[in-house]
């Protein structure tokens, strides 16, 4: 699976922390910090919906969006990609490095560690 780009990740992070939101609510929370117009936020949400990374529901006639991607798996994939492809790191990765992140609970950090290092085990088994 491909990874979200920085704009898509900004929207996903907001939805993960805030839960289902209208496009206007997402824009009000994320758009100003990204210097986006409302149309830019809507374009990003539509792209995420097309990819199946957010789901749309109608609530009392209002379109509401929610993240369809699992936060821990997505962040784990980004960490793994960065460590392996950008930094050329090999071997186990310490998920504890991310303990100060406001985006991950202790249980999610444990899951992240398993996700990152399970991929490492699969990679090394595939090379054998």
TrEMBL record:
Keyword set, alphabetical order: DNA-binding, Transcription, Transcription regulation
InterPro entries: BlaI_family, WH-like_DNA-bd_sf, WH_DNA-bd_sf
GO MF annotation list: DNA binding
Pfam family, one: Penicillinase_R
GO biological process per UniProt: negative regulation of DNA-templated transcription
Family to which this protein belongs: Belongs to the BlaI transcriptional regulatory family.
Protein name from the UniProt record: CopY family transcriptional regulator
Organism for this UniProt entry: Hyphomonas johnsonii MHS-2
């Amino acid at each position: 699976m491909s990874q979200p780009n920085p704009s898509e990740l900004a929207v996903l992070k907001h939805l993960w922390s805030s839960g289902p939101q209208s496009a206007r609510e997402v824009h009000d929370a994320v758009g100003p910090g990204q210097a986006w117009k409302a149309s830019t936020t809507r374009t990003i949400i539509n792209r995420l919906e097309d990819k199946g990374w957010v789901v749309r529901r109608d609530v009392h006639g209002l379109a509401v969006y929610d993240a369809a991607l699992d936060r821990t798996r997505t962040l784990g994939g980004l960490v793994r990609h960065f460590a392996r492809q950008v930094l050329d790191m090999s071997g186990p990765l310490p998920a504890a490095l991310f303990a100060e992140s406001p985006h991950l609970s202790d249980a999610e950090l444990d899951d992240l560690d398993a996700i990152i290092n399970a991929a490492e085990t699969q990679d090394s088994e595939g090379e054998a």
